[in-house]
Structure formats: structure tokens, C-alpha cells
Design a protein that fits this description.
The complex is a heterodimer. In chain A, about 55% of the residues lie in helices and about 15% in strands. By secondary structure, chain A is α/β, with parallel strands linked by helices. Chain A has a 6-stranded mixed beta sheet, with helices on both faces. In chain A, strands 1-2-3-4-5 form a 5-stranded mixed beta sheet, sandwiched between helices. By secondary structure, chain B is an alpha+beta fold. Chain B folds into 2 domains: about 5-80; about 90-160, no CATH class. Chain B contains 3 helices and 12 strands. The longest helix of chain B has 14 residues, at about 70-80. The chains are: A alpha/beta, B alpha+beta. The complex binds adenosine-5'-diphosphate and magnesium ion (MG).
């Protein structure tokens, strides 16, 4: 394999590196972004087959060579916002070779593995390939659009992705095109109708009313004819407007509903890592308010923009034919109006963005505390909770006040300017009429002022369009953050083997949720079909994380996990998960009946199937005693059942799936010993012949296990048959000792109490 | 309960830039303790834990600012070795390509360009006026006070708040 590095090697070290390397083959390099003192700077570390060459201005002479024969072990020390590549020398000292931000931490990890592997087994291509794979992962970009991909061969969901953000929403508008176009025609019509009244004013003022004064006998008849026409115009305008309003609203709602459905649907497929970072409130806000912003904008663009455009042209034509000088005069204020309109938009849109954040914080608080109302009450924290909510609301209000100031001042400034324009027209036109030296009549002047007033509206609209576009862009971005996010890989893709035997292998698996802390450290583990594996270790050691990776809740790990020899990333996700029964410590129930909760993953379940599953799970006995039995409606999150009962419902759920692999994550940790026994017998009934992984706190739960894995600080420290491990007198032995001592103590105490 | 220590109860010796050999005046000695802030975001120099090599808590410094200058300096420099949350002094540019942002900023530790995938989650304004930024690689940055940024930086950052 050719030399590779995470970034181009800095110019300033290149020549020096060539010299220092001499004939040695540089296998790969890590380019760092800090110097050893922790300031941002360039640095680089070359790895050859038998040494590390570190270049950093803070090394004496900017250089340090460390032969593998001097090193006992190499590792990465992750700190806060930065990490060190550190070696422990055979002399017992430690030396820091390179400092870097977390951007390079992952590859530094595999580089340390490379060093240790070469020290232990000698140089080989295999460790180099592991490093190379990690490099490739860092550098996997879509060849078409350059977007970063989760893995090198993943398909880019952004492609053909240079499309403008908003045009992605075209597909929601398209199905409604019929209605939208109809609405455009209707509104062109109503707009045309709205041009009639000022003109009738002109006829009334100039011809009809003076006609009566001059004693024309048909004056009244003419008056009523004109008024009739006016009434007709009004009627048509408002009747058509009503029809149009109805159609438009339906079309708009349809667009938004489809969008909401898609967001929700997509949200179901997003990986857990998305939810680790995104608050519930912000998701709620996106579904509710951002879609509304977008809807409003789509309607603006497809309707108002078209209509306003025609209105503007129509008005301009009418005004010019009436009096071109007055028209030009009334255009004088337009640039000013447009300018102010734009400034307004610029000022207001970041304020709206911040308002959004505040209101999203409020939603999050609600979503967080209302379900936690039991805890609030238990700690008599009602007051503090309300105070916090008040604080959030107040802070929203403070922001809203700022926005309100801008939002109230600007439109009025604008209206004032428009009125000024009117005054100017009156002044010039009125003067002309009084002097009587032009063709301008009183009726024309009144009509003209009306038309000019109407003209400012589309001007203002177009002046603000780009800012309202900016605003919408922000909403669109937030929606796209969900719609465009990388979903969990490949539902409906990949292979679906006929049957899963249940052999599970971990190969060099490294994982961290967050670059600052490594949670799983070089996990290697083989579980044979039918094995019953107990996973033990202190809390926080990484047991659940191990399970999370098997469940494919997190896909962004280094190394490989294989099921029956096949990489789990190559297996179709929905098939894969359907093969695993997963019982969690605190099982999640939904606001639905007990029956539906058991049949949750099996939509067309037969009634007897559900009852049998409940029977196997030792749940039937308590469900039968509920007044509404299987029809019992559970509250949110399963309120209405005890912890042990919920647990048995969730085991019944797992039974329904008839899975090839079973996983229990501290399934009995939260229940009393009698219930534990019930659950335990249910579990033992269930696991027959299935590969089973059990995380358990109480070692007594693991009596059926034929293999024990001891996890500590993200590593597997012991692994083997229980009695082998006991003989080893290591960590497992100690755990057993402590627990049996405890049990002894407890039983002794009991005896004492009885005496 | 952890063992709280106040000034005049311990003496430190800084070793390898990050380790504090700690001598209690009551007699015990602990070698190579590492200092960790218990409130790295909100706490200033209060409540700093001293951990041994297995990560066990040996003691907690209540208030470092109350320590004699010399002792305080040793702990601060050990902390400085561990914590890297550069203060952003100004933004130089923010560019976007394929909806991934690259922000270039001048910090108290030099100029750095970092990647922001999603500013909705990356930028976090705090109630006290500070702004915390976490880049795509989980590196952290701090803006001590938004109002103190220059006009150009404010203009760049404002829409992201
Ligand atoms: N979603 C998460 N984000 C970040 N860190 C996590 C997350 N879940 C767990 N961790 C951390 O990972 C470590 C291992 O957690 P876990 O696997 O749940 O431990 P346990 O062995 O008790 O099941 C813990 O230190 C925990 O703080
Ligand atoms: Mg756990």
C-alpha cells in the first residue's frame, strides 16, 4: 500500500522529513493541528515500519525519532478539546509525540493500535489496512457533490444535490398545481375587479354628479347604472375571492400536511445520534411552526407574486394613460419605500431566528417536564418548575419585544411615506385643477390617488420578498435538517439471509459517542450460536453500548461486527432488527391498550398468539386480573403498570417476534426478587436454543450462562466459561465474592432478626 | 463525601506539565494526581477534583482563587494542559459548501478553521452572555461575550444564533 496521510504534510516539514526518513519506508503520517504547547500550529508524525518520526516546533530541534524498540506501548490520551499521542518507554518514562484537536483523534487511535501491533507481532500489512480503513472513513466524500458520507460506500442522499434548498420543496407543491393555477386565474380576476372602483369614482365625480347639478334629466338613472356596475364589481370580486380563499387554503393545507407526514416519517428513520443532539422541542417546532412558515412562503411565491406582478403592470398602464407626469411624480417615493422595506427585512429576520430558538426552548421544557410531573411532585418542585417556565417565557418575551419594536415601527414609517406621496400628488394635481390650466379633472385626481395608493403595495411586497425568502430559508433549513439528514442506513437494501443462526463476532471494534471519550476500546469477541452469554461489569463500563452496536443503534464505529460471518452493515436493517428480541431495563410502553403494546412489532398478530406470548412471559396472570384485561388502556409511557409488569409485557413483545437472537439489558434490575423469579423463569423459557446476551447486575440471574464477558472501562478484561473465570481469580471472581458475601451478610442479618 | 481541601491544607509540585504531586499538611502524600474541573463550563476556578491514576477522587479543591498565588498557578497550568477551550476573539470567515460550514476564527491559541455541520446544535448561547461552540469533531470554543466581538464578526455570527 502506498503512503497516505489525513491531510497534506505541511510544507515546512517536508524536506526535513525526507532527510530524516532516508531509506526508511514511510507507511503513513498523521498531520496534527496543534503544537505540543497546545497552540494551533502545524505538526506531523510519520510512521515507518520500526519508528515514529515526530515533527513539531516544540520538540528540541523540531524533531523527535522514537524507535519501536524503545517503546513499551503507545496510546492516545484524550483530554478536553485536545488529545496527545503518548508513548510509554521501556524505561518507564512517558513521552508526548504530538498534540492535536479531536479532528485527528480517531486516526491517532488506530495509529496507536498499529504501533502496538507491530511491536508485538512485527510489521505486517494487516494493521496498516486497519489504519487505512480509518483514514478512508475520515475522507469519504460523495464523488458527485462532495458531501461527507458516513462510510466510503454509502450512497449520498444529497445527490443530485446541487439543487437549491427551496426547489426541494417543489415536489410538495407539484401535486397541488391544478388548484394553485386555478387560484392564480381567480385572483387575477379579483385583482382586475379591484381596479374598477377607482375608475367608477372618476366617472361619478367627473360626469354623473356634475351632470345632475347641470340639470341633466337622466342623471339619476346614470347614477344608479354606475352604482349598479360598482356593486356588481364588488360582488364579483368578493364572491370569487371567497371561492379562491377556500381552494387556496385546501391546497396550502395539503402541501403542509404532506410535508409534516414526511418529516415525521423521516424522523422515525433517523439514527439515535441525531436524537442525542437534537431536542424534542426543536423537532416539535419544526413539524409545527416551520412548516407553517414554509407554507406561507410557498403561497406567496406561487400566488401573490404572480398576482402582484400583474397588478403592478395593470396599475402602471392605467396610471400612465391617465396622466404620465403625475405617474412619474408618484414614482419618486418608490425607491425610498423599497429601500426601507428591505432594511426592515434585514433587521427583522435574525430576530425571528432568535425567537425561534427561544420558543423551541419553551417547547423542549414542556416536552421534558410534563411527562416528568411525578418527579416534580415528589420533590415538591412545582414552584421551581413554574419559575423556570416563567423565566423561559420572559426571555422569549424580551426577544419578542425587540422584534415587535422593529415590526411595528417599520410598516408605519412606510405607510407614512406612502401618504406623503399622496400629499404630493394632491398638491401638484390639486394645484393644476385650481389653476385650471391642464386636462386633469377632479375625478381623475381622486381615482389617480387611489391607484397610486394601490401601487405601493406590490412595491413593498417585492422589496420584502427577498428577506421573506431569507426567513423561509432558515425554516427550510431546519426542516431539511431532518428531511435531508442521513437516515439509518439502507432499509430495504442489503441481503436478508433465510435464517440467522446467531453467531456474533466483534472484530477490533472501537466506538465513541463523542470524540472526547472513548466508550468501547478494541473489542474482540466471538459468540457461538446458542450461547448464553452473561455480560457483567460496573455501571458505565460500556455494556449497554455494546448492545447498542449490535442493535445498530449507532453505526459509526471502527472495526466490524459480524453475524453468521456477515457484516451486519450488509444485512437489510428491518430484517436484521426483526431477528433480535431486545428487552430493556426500563421498557417503553405506548399510550395504547395492553394488547396493542404486546403486539407492537407484529401488526397482524392473532389474538391467541398474543395471549400465548403473555403466558410465556408470565404476564398473562396479572393481565387477566386487570378489570379491562387486554383492553386496559395504558397511560403515556405505560403509566398504570408496575415496573415488573411492564417488564413482562416487554418480554411478551420479544416473544412475539420469535427472534433468533435475544438480548436482555438489566431486565431484572428494577424489580423485587419474587418478580425477578417470575421474569427469570420467563426468560429461561424463552432463551431455549437461541443465542442470548444478558447484561445482569445480579450474578444469580446468570445461572444459565455458559459464557461470561467482563467489561471494564470499555474493554473486555475477561471472557470465558464461568468456572474457568472463577479459577482465574480475576475480576469475575472478585465480583462473585463480593456478591456472595453480600448475600451471606443479608441472610445472617435475617437470622439475627429472627432470633 | 469527597475530601474538600482549602488553602493552607496542601502543597503541590507540578510534574510533566499535567501531574500534581500533592502533599497534605496532615501528612499524606499522593503522587501524580490529575486536576479536573467539576464545572468546566460554569464554575470558574471553584470545585476542582484531584484524581489518582485510576480516576479515583482523592480530594476536591473548593476554591482555587483562595489559594496562594504560587500554588494556584501550578494547578492552573495543569488544568491548562488538559482543557482546551480556546476563546474566539474574532471570526475571519465562514464559508459553506454542500451545507457544511467551515468557520475560520482567531482565538487566543491562534487561528483555526473548524467544521460546523449544523449550527442549530453547534452554537449554544448561555444565559450569562457567553456563547459556546462545539464543532463537528466535538472540539469546544468559547466566545466570552458576544457584544465584545467586532462588528464584522457579530454580523457573521448573528444569523447563527
Ligand atoms: N448517548 C450517549 N451519549 C454520550 N455518552 C453516552 C451515551 N450513552 C452512554 N454514554 C456513556 O458511555 C459510557 C458507557 O455507557 P453504558 O454502555 O450505558 O454503560 P453500562 O455498562 O452501565 O451499560 C458511560 O460512560 C456513559 O456515560
Ligand atoms: Mg446499561
Amino acid at each position: 500500500m502506498d503512503f497516505f496521510s489525513n491531510k497534506p504534510v505541511p510544507e515546512k516539514f517536508r524536506d526535513r522529513a525526507q532527510r530524516e526518513l532516508g531509506d526508511a519506508r514511510a507507511v503513513f503520517a498523521i498531520v496534527g493541528d496543534m503544537d505540543l504547547d497546545g497552540s494551533y500550529n502545524e505538526s506531523v508524525m510519520y510512521f515507518t515500519q520500526n519508528a515514529i518520526l515526530a515533527f513539531d516546533e516544540k520538540h528540541p530541534d523540531s524533531f523527535r525519532r522514537t524507535g519501536f524498540d524503545e517503546i513499551e506501548t503507545a496510546f492516545v490520551k484524550r483530554m478536553y478539546g485536545n488529545a496527545l499521542f503518548r508513548v510509554r518507554m521501556k524505561t518507564g518514562e512517558t513521552a508526548d509525540l504530538l498534540r492535536f484537536t479531536f479532528s485527528a483523534a480517531d486516526i491517532a487511535d488506530v495509529a496507536a493500535l498499529y504501533v502496538n501491533s507491530v511491536i508485538e507481532h512485527g510489521f505486517g500489512e494487516e494493521p496498516v489496512e486497519t489504519v487505512y480503513a480509518a483514514y478512508m472513513k475520515q475522507r469519504s466524500f460523495c464523488p458527485k457533490c462532495g458531501r461527507k458520507l458516513p462510510s466510503p460506500d454509502a450512497e449520498c442522499i444529497n445527490c443530485g444535490g446541487k439543487k437549491k434548498l427551496l426547489s426541494k420543496f417543489a415536489k410538495y407543491v407539484y401535486p397541488e398545481r391544478g388548484r394553485l393555477i386555478a387560484c392564480i386565474f381567480l385572483s387575477v380576476f379579483t385583482t382586475a375587479m379591484s381596479l374598477v372602483p377607482p375608475y367608477t369614482t372618476k366617472i361619478l365625480v367627473d360626469d354623473v354628479i356634475p351632470g345632475a347639478a347641470n340639470g341633466a334629466d337622466d342623471a339619476l338613472a346614470r347614477l344608479f347604472a354606475v352604482l349598479g356596475a360598482l356593486l356588481g364589481a364588488y360582488f364579483l370580486q368578493y364572491a370569487v375571492s371567497a371561492v379562491r380563499g377556500y381552494i387556496l387554503r385546501c391546497a396550502g393545507d395539503k402541501i403542509v400536511i404532506n410535508l409534516k407526514k414526511d418529516i415525521y416519517r423521516k424522523a422515525q428513520y433517523l439514527p439515535l445520534s441525531f436524537y442525542d443532539k437534537t431536542s424534542t422541542g426543536s423537532v416539535i417546532n419544526r413539524v409545527n411552526s416551520d412548516t407553517a412558515t414554509l407554507q406561507a412562503f410557498i403561497l406567496r411565491i406561487t400566488q401573490e407574486a404572480v398576482v402582484k406582478f400583474f397588478l403592478m403592470i395593470g396599475l402602471a398602464v392605467i396610471m400612465f394613460t391617465m396622466d404620465w407626469r403625475l405617474t412619474l411624480l408618484s414614482f419618486v417615493t418608490i425607491p425610498l419605500v423599497a429601500l426601507i422595506g428591505r432594511t426592515f427585512g434585514r433587521r427583522i429576520s435574525p430576530k425571528y431566528m432568535r425567537l425561534w430558538r427561544k420558543s423551541s426552548a419553551i417547547s423542549t421544557l414542556l416536552a421534558d417536564t410534563i411527562p416528568g410531573v411525578r418527579v416534580v411532585k415528589a420533590f415538591t418542585n412545582e414552584n421551581a418548575a413554574s419559575d423556570k417556565f416563567s423565566r423561559y417565557c420572559d426571555s422569549w418575551f424580551a426577544e419578542d419585544k425587540k422584534a415587535a419594536k422593529t415590526a411595528s415601527v417599520f410598516p408605519n414609517v412606510m405607510t407614512f411615506l406612502v401618504s406623503c406621496g399622496t400629499v404630493i400628488i394632491y398638491a401638484v394635481g390639486g394645484g393644476e385643477i385650481i389653476r385650471g390650466n391642464g386636462a386633469l379633472t377632479l375625478g381623475m385626481l381622486v381615482a389617480f390617488v387611489n391607484y397610486a395608493g394601490m401601487f405601493y403595495e406590490p412595491v413593498n411586497f417585492f422589496a420584502n420578498l427577498s428577506d421573506s425568502y431569507q426567513n423561509t430559508l432558515a425554516s427550510a433549513e431546519k426542516i431539511m435538517d431532518i428531511l435531508d439528514a442521513e437516515p439509518e442506513s439502507d432499509f430495504g437494501k442489503g441481503s436478508a439471509p433465510a435464517k440467522i443462526d446467531g453467531k456474533i463476532e466483534f472484530r477490533n471494534v472501537n466506538f465513541s459517542f463523542d470524540h472526547s471519550k472513548k466508550v468501547l476500546d478494541n473489542i474482540n469477541l466471538t459468540i457461538e450460536p446458542g450461547d448464553i452469554v452473561g455480560i457483567v461489569g460496573t455501571t458505565g463500563s460500556g455494556k449497554s453500548t455494546l448492545i447498542n452496536l449490535i442493535m445498530r443503534y449507532y453505526d459509526d464505529y471502527d472495526g466490524e461486527i459480524l453475524i453468521d460471518g456477515q457484516n451486519i452493515k450488509d444485512i437489510d436493517m428491518s430484517f436484521y432488527r426483526s431477528q433480535i428480541g431486545f428487552v430493556q431495563q426500563d421498557p417503553m410502553m405506548f399510550r395504547d391498550t395492553v394488547f396493542k403494546n404486546i403486539a407492537y412489532g407484529t401488526p397482524n398478530a392473532h389474538v391467541e398468539q398474543v395471549i400465548n406470548a403473555a403466558e410465556i412471559a408470565n404476564a398473562n396472570s396479572f393481565i387477566e386480573k386487570l378489570p379491562d384485561a387486554y383492553d386496559t388502556m395504558l397511560g403515556e409511557r405505560g403509566v398504570g403498570l408496575s415496573g415488573g409488569e411492564r417488564q413482562r409485557v416487554s418480554i411478551a413483545r420479544a416473544v412475539m417476534k420469535n427472534p433468533g437472537i435475544l438480548i436482555f439489558d438489566e431486565a431484572t434490575a428494577a424489580v423485587d426478587s419474587e418478580t425477578e423469579n417470575l421474569i427469570q423463569t420467563a426468560i429461561e423459557r424463552l432463551i431455549r436454543g437461541r443465542t442470548t446476551l444478558m447484561i445482569a447486575h445480579r450474578l444469580s440471574t446468570l445461572r444459565k450462562a455458559n459464557k461470561i464477558v467482563v467489561v471494564d472501562k470499555g474493554r473486555i478484561v475477561e471472557c470465558g466459561a464461568p468456572d474457568e473465570l472463577l479459577k482465574l481469580k480475576g475480576k469475575y471472581y472478585k465480583l462473585v465474592q463480593i456478591q456472595s458475601m453480600n448475600d451471606e451478610l443479608i441472610s445472617k442479618k435475617r437470622e439475627e432478626n429472627f432470633e | 463525601m469527597p475530601r474538600y481541601v482549602d488553602a493552607n491544607q496542601v502543597r503541590f509540585t507540578l510534574r510533566d506539565r499535567i501531574f500534581l504531586d500533592t502533599e497534605f499538611f496532615s501528612g499524606e502524600r499522593y503522587d501524580a494526581l490529575e486536576a479536573r474541573r467539576l464545572f468546566p463550563v460554569s464554575g470558574g476556578n471553584k470545585y476542582i477534583a484531584l484524581l489518582d491514576e485510576n480516576g479515583n477522587n482523592v480530594a476536591v479543591i473548593r476554591d482555587l482563587d483562595a489559594f496562594p498565588q504560587e500554588e494556584k498557578q501550578k494547578v492552573l497550568s495543569a488544568l491548562d494542559e488538559y482543557y482546551r477551550m480556546p476563546r474566539i476573539l474574532r471570526f475571519i470567515k465562514m464559508t459553506e459548501k454542500y451545507r457544511i460550514w467551515m468557520w475560520t476564527a482567531e482565538t487566543d491559541k491562534g487561528v483555526i478553521t473548524f467544521e460546523i455541520r449544523n449550527h442549530l446544535t453547534a452554537v449554544k448561547p448561555l444565559f450569562d452572555g457567553r456563547i459556546l461552540i462545539k464543532d463537528a469533531n466535538d472540539n469546544r470554543y468559547e466566545i466570552p461575550k458576544f457584544d465584545n466581538l467586532d462588528k464584522k464578526s457579530k454580523k457573521m455570527l448573528f444569523p447563527k444564533l
